[in-house]
Amino acid sequence: MLKYLGHVPGVSIPTLHIGMLFSTSCWSSAPHGLPYIQYQHTGAPTIWHCVPKSQESKLQSALKELVPTLVPDKPCWLKEDWLMVNPKHLSQHGVHVEKCVQYPGQFVVVFPGAFTSTISCGYNVSESVHFALPSWLPKGLEASLILNKSEEQELFSMCSLLCQLVQDEKVEASTLAVALPLLSALINKELDLRNQLSAAGLKGEKSDTFSDSPSSSAITNKRRSSTTDDKICDVSNKICYFSMVLVDQGEQTLCIEQGVKHIQRRKNIKSTKLFVQFTQNELEAMLKKAKDRLNSMSCLEGSSSNGSGSSIINGASSVSLSLSNTSIGNTSGSKTRHNSRQSSSTS
């Protein structure tokens, strides 16, 4: 799934971790709800402590009591590399904390929503990388909205990911069936906000300002190398992908949601401009082409099954639910270790 983002540091590019004696990583949870896997190449063991997703409210309450000034009252309440608290103190406050010791040659898999911290027992080298399955897409979109609401910066744009995915002619029908409704909802919201700006007298215009972003016409083999050229909203820290509002000749950049609020306050209307990467016709054509392709694949699926199978979309829902129950949605906090591969999972 993440291949559609190109090379994004900390997301689709593996990260090398070099630890020393008592090196620590603070309590954290992947900001986009992405699962990741970490492999230890060599060196001393790494001690992992984990709090499962099901314990989030207890963890938040405990940290508010232990370090109240470090826990903001926001949906995204735990910043990365922000705080370290002794697991014993968390246990004393009723938080269920799991422990896992990772040795060289072992994998640790961290599931979405899990909170982790680590301590190195000496010099070691490990490597981690995020991954995503189709069932993650709704969770990823929800996590992105939480980041926007908390005014925390995104690592990548879900709008971009979904656009690239639905335009891929080789994407599987089950994956397209999951992604298409999400993108359709985002585009409908985008067009509604554009209509609000248009009613206020602000017309959108096509701009080459978005030239750093992937092309809307096709998926190319050459991916963008980073997100450093993305246009970021100065208020919400959201990546402006479909459109952006520039105020005072570019002195301030706003996402379209903040642009509507800006116009509603009747501030600097004459010096405010709306720039779009995709026109309404282009967005609607993108959706129509993807829907037609999905319907075509659904017909082929129905023919091959001689009428015994349901539609592709219904099948995709059952696949997504199955994955959620077996792995991605696992929040029990249990760990499994297989002697043949010596792997551990943290959820």
Automatic annotation (TrEMBL):
Pfam families tied to this protein: JmjC
GO CC field: chromatin; nucleus
Keywords of the record: Nucleus
Domain JmjC: 1-148
Keyword Nucleus: yes
Region (Disordered): 204-223, 327-347
PROSITE patterns to which the protein is assigned, alphabetical: JMJC, PROKAR_LIPOPROTEIN
UniProt xrefs under Gene3D superfamilies: Cupin
Chief location category: nucleus
GO biological process: chromatin remodeling; regulation of gene expression
Subcellular location: Nucleus
Record protein name field: Lysine-specific demethylase 5C
Record lineage: Eukaryota, Metazoa, Spiralia, Lophotrochozoa, Mollusca
